Amino acid sequence: MKVLDIYIDGASKGNPGPAAVGVVICCKGQVIKNISDYIGEATNNIAEYKALIYALEEALILKADILNIRTDSELLFKQINGDYKVKNENIKVLYDRAKHLISAFKEFSISHISRNLNKGADKLANLVFKKKKKA
């Protein structure tokens, strides 16, 4: 059984504005992959969902059986767990996609963590903006 622990973060400068995702994938306590990508114009919540989708797709490619997602987005956490309804139509599309991808794993969990425990994913998301300024 392949178990992955994945830290995700989405960032938007302007909300909506230029947006990016950061994903840190760990296996047995070791970082095995970092993802940092610009996703265009988006709100912070959409960026958080896109980070989740990036993580889920990569976990499928890596043939994970058990997935533990860590996020500092309380909204994303509570919506995925079913504690909050998804009312925004733009987020509903992403939510449905995420739930479909989640169904491919033998076990799935999502945890809400504080921002200071999510520094790696946060740094990757914000790295995109630093690279864009230099370009």
Which keywords apply here?
single chain; about 140 residues; alpha/beta; Nucleotidyltransferase, domain 5; five-stranded mixed β-sheet; 4 helices
Description:
- This protein has 135 residues and is α/β, with parallel strands linked by helices.
- It has one domain (3-130): Nucleotidyltransferase, domain 5.
- The chain has four helices and five strands, in the order βββαβααβα.
- It has helices spanning 44-61, 74-80, 89-102, 119-134; strands at residues 3-12, 17-27, 30-42, 66-71, 107-112.
- It has a five-stranded mixed beta sheet.
- The longest helix is centred in the middle third of the chain and has 18 residues, at 44-61.
- It is globular.
- The mean pLDDT is 96.
Low-confidence segments, given as residue ranges, are none
Give the mean pLDDT: 96
Shape: globular
Describe the strand arrangement of the main beta sheet, using strand numbers.
Answer: 3-2-1-4-5
CATH architecture: 2-Layer Sandwich
Q: Considering DSSP H and I runs of 4 or more, what fraction of the residues is helical?
A: 40-55%
Helix and strand pattern: EEEHEHHEH
| Beta-strand residue percentage | 25-35%
Q: Number of DSSP helices?
A: 4
| Terminal-residue CA separation | 42 Å
What is the third-level CATH name, the topology?
Nucleotidyltransferase, domain 5
Q: What is the alpha-carbon Rg in Å?
A: 14 Å
Give the CATH level 1 class: Alpha Beta
What is the CATH homology-level superfamily?
A: Ribonuclease H-like superfamily/Ribonuclease H
Tell me the total number of β-strands: 5
Tally of discrete structural domains: 1
